[in-house]
Write a structure and sequence with these properties.
Length: 1198
């Protein structure tokens, strides 16, 4: 045909499509092709070519699929008409994933990875994972043995037209390629290929078929390297091939999901630990031979060399041995650096081995060693920091505390000392840590029983269970776990003995110079011995997970002192305790935190759900635990919406003593967090001196959790800690059988002691009392008698405000108790500490109760500022003055202007726009000329500025690399005071919404809103805002604009009038102009209403009361003004002449002026007018006012 068309064709391409090994042989294919060529092409000069690509690619790949479902189907055979049972298997890959070629070819061979045991096969159909009817791996029924879910099927020769045209239909991923190469081929490739081949591309083993049919059992974790990769060992065998079990060592990369075998033993051995160098050219491993006591041996193997060339290092020992390669920093400028590794032999020494660079053979000439440490009792390797921590015993040259005398001849004065060796790349190693430790119940005798746990890499026996937790920011914690008996003398305990013991741990926080101690008493021995606590750093906290008992979150970050610790329910409650043996690992995922369960080798994502902490807050836990949880959400996790939700929830119980303390914690913690995000970079360190919490160091608490009681205790010094721990009993050594069992038992009833002890330097403690206002309420005499009993039994210090004399009703009862100096101080016993307490002093006759509120100043260790330093200034200044006495010119000034401009600046700098959604139920405007809030802001600004300036001057080494000028101090102080105002307003908004105020629906504000709502809502809102006011005043925070008048009027409409007056007398309520105007404008229906207004006018300043009296449209106002006018004339005080005017007093139409009065009843009036005219001229006397007052009196209006 080509010749007919004029083409001279000289080459014939037969194409491709050749099958792999499963198709016909090459000779058969060649015979058929040659017969066709002879028949159709007689010209032998034609060149024939073909494309056997599919022939090569098909045989290079096998598809392995896992059965995830199965069912038995009954169908009718078309040929015989009988019922046939067909087994349907559903696998995780189908025609859309990699087997699309099934649609046009049917020679794929599907068989099980492992053959049937009895040889029987059944009609079967294999389906893909999608619901498509065409997703069938073969178009006919195939014969397979009985398969189970989880079994594997292998599809032979799937290299051509599979992955190249695969899709992710319905979201199913395409198969992953794993390269498999046998050891001999790998060795040939690495030696002959110029560019080294990447090991993560291959699974080095036997051929593929044997690899898929092998059994892998007894997996063991041998270690984790600096890059996060894990070293595992396992036993590999093949029952079908009758191959003996062999131990293999491999490296697992979590990010790539690959396991690369490195070494294969010729038999089953007990490999306990291994390490690989940075270049992955050397492997060091430790074998333990089971003799009488067990012998440890160290071997060094050069990867890719024959396995029998592994070299033994050092000498064998019955003491535990671990080995670890050092990881130098690698850069393009790095030359050939020698390879170093450590060999740690328990109680014998730590050796450093150095392998010369450019060494091809390992022998005694190319490896040198040096002894770093002679003797140690415990050691741990930190792979990230390349630091070796070890504990050794040394004699003390001086006492641990002042006054202690140490004699050289006393053999008991041997101190365990924690040292740290830092290994550098170029410089020699150096000692970076050398700290004496006080380890409670540390025995002098070693048990020499080893658990051989390698993550983290530690060398120790059963006599000391200790772990060091660090990070690159300077976070260092020494965590010691131990058991001891609470009775004397110590008794021997059998393995299943249920005698109670104490479970305890101590955490020595080096970067905070303190010790935290926890004791959980009365746990049965057979359970306590299996509990393995997990110590792990998570954020700014040290998480201590005690399975089936509790989870402790120790706030020991670098930003502030450790005092906001949390106790909550245990995590991982779905897993049984004896299946949990958790260990911390190096970070392997940036977004997730994992720990490894050594009992099952499972990676467990360990996070702290917010719901657990919220549930703990809403439980009946103690106040300190709630404050710590609130602190966590505000400062550390920065989830203010959750904190607001918790405040709203707690608003349902505003009468508890804890509620004001929770509000204080919210204000202080949220203000601190707000400042942190709005500071210039040069001023960030100054913010560390700001208050961060209301809690104090060394807090004593008692937590109840699921029927258990966790009590917290504290000591002031390390000596007190030693005495407290030493008096409880001797340690219980765990036996060899106990050490062999890893896992944890179930917990029983317990009580725990969590204590903090300041070591070395003690911070300055500022404990003061803040006087508070009192509140008067009505109760009956029976409650009074009960409270008298309470006073005799309890002991809580509190101070009665002594600025003004107490009401005579309650003063007599108060003086019957102990009075110290000018302050009434009551000593009342209670287990509550550092919380607001209310003690009611009652009068049986009057049935009145006066609740005096105490608030102890919060502990803020120097150099942080005292929270109440500003409030103490306000107590001595502003509370002694009426609000209008505060002068704008007397308040402290900011560098830019006066107090008026300062206050306006703070209001304008408030973060967040005020819109309808976050508005308050009152107009945020103050009607007074000089607000107390201006004074609060000015005092706070001055005190914080002076404090920051002092601290920045005293800590010059901390700021030596920064330009900490006075403008930085002013910037921090200004932003903090602005944050105070912001967070105070935010908290007020949260409480108003909790009182059912909805800014989207309630459009009325201020006094109109108060008059609109019903009495129940009014009462709820008043109680919430009352607690808010108490919290704000206690820590000298400013109130939102307009709050004072709104709160006072809300109290006026809610409380009884005599209670309201006591609040006014104690300056809780401020009667500003706006509230007095609306009160004076209310109608007077009874004489009592008039008396109320007169009583309120009497407590106002004279000028303000006189202005309101002039505006009061009532006869009483006329009479009072007339009396004052007459008194001035008789006293000789001249008054300005005023024109006669109508005062708006309603008159009796039957009486018209003086002429309408008879001479009999006007004789005193005439005498009085004559007296006035004798004292002053007629122009100075306001006859109209006097006549109008006289008419009102004679009409018997009052």
């Amino acid at each position: 045909m080509g010749k007919d068309l004029g083409y001279n064709l000289k080459m014939l391409d037969l194409g491709g499509g050749y099958a792999g090994k499963a198709a016909k042989s090459r000779d058969e294919i060649a015979r058929i092709v040659n017969e066709s060529l002879e028949e159709h092409f007689d010209d032998l000069s034609i060149k024939v070519i073909s494309e056997p690509g599919m022939y090569y690619s098909n045989a290079a790949f096998k598809l392995v699929a896992n059965i995830h479902s199965k069912r038995l189907s009954t169908e009718i055979d078309k040929e015989t008409g009988k019922e046939v049972k067909i087994r349907m298997y559903y696998v995780d890959v189908g025609i859309f994933g990699a087997l699309i070629s099934v649609l046009y070819q049917d020679y794929y061979e599907i068989k099980p990875v492992k053959g049937p045991t009895n040889g029987q096969r059944y009609p079967s159909i294999v389906w893909g994972p999608t619901c498509d009817s065409s997703d069938q791996l073969s178009d006919h029924v195939i014969q397979l043995p009985e398969m189970q879910i989880g079994d594997w099927l292998i599809v032979e020769e799937t290299g051509g037209y599979t992955l190249s045209i695969a899709s992710e239909f319905n979201g199913f991923p395409t198969p992953t390629i794993h390269g498999v190469i046998n050891e001999q081929a790998w060795s040939v490739l690495t030696k002959n290929v110029h560019k080294p081949m990447s090991e993560d591309r291959f699974i080095r083993g036997e051929d593929l078929n044997n690899y898929l049919t092998d059994d892998f059992i007894e997996w063991r974790l041998l270690g984790q390297e600096q890059n996060g990769s894990f070293l595992f060992s396992w036993i590999q065998s093949n029952a079908d091939l009758a191959s003996p079990p062999r131990t293999r060592i491999g490296e697992y990369d979590y990010q790539k999901g690959t396991l690369v075998p490195i070494y294969t033993f010729d038999k089953k051995v007990d490999c306990i630990q291994a390490s690989v160098n940075n270049a992955r050219t050397l492997l060091a491993y430790v074998l333990k031979e089971s003799r009488d006591e067990g012998v440890y041996k160290v071997y060094l193997y050069q990867i890719d060399e024959p396995f029998e060339r592994a070299m033994e290092i050092g000498r064998e020992s019955s003491r535990q041995i671990m080995v670890q390669f050092l990881y130098p920093k690698v850069s393009v400028l790095s030359g050939n650096v020698p390879i170093k590794f450590l060999v740690l032999v328990h109680q014998e020494g730590i050796h450093q081995y150095i392998i010369k660079s450019k060494t091809s053979d390992l022998n005694e000439d190319t490896i040198s060693s040096e002894l770093l440490v002679k003797n140690f009792v415990w050691a741990q390797w930190d792979p990230l920091q390349q630091t070796l921590y070890y504990i050794h015993n040394r004699k003390r040259n001086r006492g641990l505390v002042e006054g202690e005398i140490v004699e050289d001849t006393d053999p008991s004065k041997i101190t365990p000392t924690l040292s740290g060796l830092q290994f550098n790349d170029e410089l020699p190693h150096e000692t970076v840590l050398n700290i004496p430790l006080n380890l409670p119940h540390l025995t002098t005798n070693s048990c020499l029983i080893y658990e051989d746990n390698t993550v983290p890499l530690r060398v120790h026996d059963c006599s000391l269970d200790l772990i060091v937790v660090t990070d690159s920011a300077g976070f260092v914690c020494i965590c010691h776990h131990y058991l001891y008996q609470p009775v004397q003398p110590v008794i021997e305990l059998s393995e299943e003995d249920s005698s109670p013991v104490h479970f305890a741990y101590t955490v020595t926080v080096l970067h905070q110079s303190c010790v935290i101690k926890c004791v959980i008493p009365d746990i049965p021995w057979n359970r306590a011995k299996r509990i393995r606590p997990l110590f792990r750093k998570t954020g700014d906290y040290l998480m201590v997970l005690i399975p089936e008992i509790c989870t402790h979150l120790l706030d020991i970050g670098l930003s502030h002192e450790p005092f906001c610790h949390i106790t909550t329910k245990p995590l991982l409650t779905a897993m049984e305790a004896h299946h949990l043996c958790l260990a911390s690992i190096i970070e392997i995922d940036e977004d997730k935190e994992f720990v490894i369960n050594l009992a099952t080798l499972d990676l467990i994502e360990l996070d702290l759900p917010s719901k657990i902490l919220m549930d703990a807050f809403k439980s009946d836990t103690i106040l300190e635990n709630k404050l710590a949880i609130l602190h966590y959400f505000l400062v550390h996790s920065e989830e203010p919406h959750i904190a607001a939700e918790l405040i709203t929830w707690h608003s349902s119980t505003p009468f508890t003593l804890a509620f004001p303390e929770i509000l204080k914690e919210y204000l202080i913690a949220s203000s601190y967090t707000s400042v942190q995000g709005n500071l210039p970079l040069d001023a960030v360190k100054l913010a560390t001196f700001l208050p961060v919490s209301t809690q104090r160091l060394g807090l004593e608490t008692e937590v109840k959790l699921d029927g258990y009681t966790i009590a917290e205790d504290s000591a002031l010094s390390q000596r007190h800690l030693d005495e407290a721990v030493g008096a409880t009993g001797e340690a219980v050594q765990r036996s060899a059988e106990v050490q062999a069992q890893s896992g944890c038992g179930q917990a029983s009833d317990f009580s725990g002691v969590l204590s903090e002890n300041k070591k070395w330097e003690e911070g300055c403690v500022a404990d003061k009392y803040n006087d508070r206002s009192y509140i008067v309420e009505e109760i009956d005499g029976e409650e009074f008698r009960r409270n008298r009993k309470l006073i005799n039994k309890t002991k809580i210090p509190f101070i009665v405000n002594n600025r003004e004399p107490l009401d005579s009703i309650a003063y007599e009862d108060i003086t019957n108790y102990s009075i110290d100096s000018q302050e009434c101080i009551f000593q009342i016993e209670s287990n509550q500490s550092n919380i607001e307490s209310e003690i009611e002093i009652l009068s049986e006759d009057s049935k009145l109760s006066i609740s005096y509120h105490m608030n102890v100043n919060f502990y803020i260790s120097d150099p942080e500022i005292e929270i109440l330093s500003g409030d103490s200034k306000l107590k001595n200044i502003s509370n002694h003055m009426n609000p209008e006495a505060l002068s704008r010119c007397s308040t402290p000034l900011s560098p830019s202007g006066g107090a008026s401009s300062t206050f306006a600046d703070f209001l304008s700098n408030q973060t967040g726009a005020k819109n309808q959604a976050d508005s308050l139920p009152f107009l945020e405007i103050d009607s007074c000329t000089a607000s107390r809030q201006e004074h609060i802001i000015s005092v706070n600004l001055r005190e914080i500025s002076m404090h920051l300036l002092k601290q920045s001057s005293n800590n010059t080494n901390k700021f030596q690399q920064q330009n900490q000028s006075s403008m930085h101090v002013h910037a921090v102080a200004t932003r903090y005071v602005t944050a105070q105002l912001d967070q105070s307003r935010q908290l007020c908004q949260i409480l108003c919404k909790a009182a059912l105020y909805d800014p989207e629906e309630d459009f009325d504000k201020g006094f109109v809103y108060i008059n609109k709502i019903d009495e129940d809502r009014r009462y709820v809102m008043f109680k919430l805002l009352e607690k808010y006011y108490m919290a704000v005043q206690a820590i000298a925070f400013p109130l939102p604009q307009g709050f004072t008048s709104f709160f006072a009027y809300l109290g006026y409409k809610t409380m009884e009038f005599r209670m309201f007056l006591q609040y006014v007398d104690r300056h809780v309520f401020e009667l500003q102009v706006d509230i007095m105007k609306i009160i004076m404008a209310e109608p007077e229906n009874t004489k009592a209403d008039v008396h109320k207004k007169l009583r309120l006018l009497s407590v106002l300043p004279r000028s303000r009361a006189k202005r309101l009296l002039n505006q009061w449209n009532h006869p009483v106002s006329t009479m009072i003004r007339a009396r004052e006018h007459a008194q001035n004339i008789l006293s000789g005080i001249s008054a300005p002449t005023s024109t006669r005017r109508q005062y708006g007093i309603p008159k009796n139409t039957d009486v018209k002026g003086l002429g309408g009065l008879s001479s009999s009843n006007m004789t005193p009036m005439d005498t009085f007018l004559e007296l006035l005219t004798a004292k002053a001229s007629l122009t100075e006397i306001d006859f109209g006012l006097l006549i109008e007052a006289t008419e009102s009196w004679n009409e018997n209006i009052f």
